[in-house]
Amino acid sequence: MTPATTNLSGRLKACRGVLVDSNVLLDVATNDPNWGEWSARALAEIAENAPLMINPIVYAEVSVGYSTIEALDAAIPAALYRREALPWEAGFLAGKCFVRYRRRGGLRQSPLPDFYIGAHAAIGRLALLTRDAARYRSYFPGVEIIAPTTPTPGRPPASSRTSPRAR
Description:
This protein is of the alpha/beta class. A five-stranded parallel beta sheet has the order 3-2-1-4-5, sandwiched between helices. It contains eight helices and five strands. α8 (133-139) links the parallel β4 and β5. 45% of the residues lie in helices and 10% in strands.
């Protein structure tokens, strides 16, 4: 089986861990036909090399598909996904990057949470596992991005979120 990621140990050497974006967690939770397998393999490979982490924004984005906090916590257990608070510095950096995005013509409805996630990775010395690599690479060039190397044709952009059915 082909690995989902390449040269992980080298790529993660300077990182404290890997922040997991909600799109990857949702791929696994929904058994996404295009991305579920890649996301599950990437999570497994990374877990062998570094701590997996989520923050309150990722937790909130994934929570919309669950009817109880217990069901959510069973899907993303704290024993596997370390909970990290958002640093205040990440809020400042997220705001500055969002302003740059808007000045470049970015849509107002663009999710500010993505900027918080990228800023958290940048400030916290975390790699980022995501399928939405382009925006993160553009606004957070110092962050090690772990993403698929090829897009799936006919698939909506990775930044569009899907949720599992309420559990």
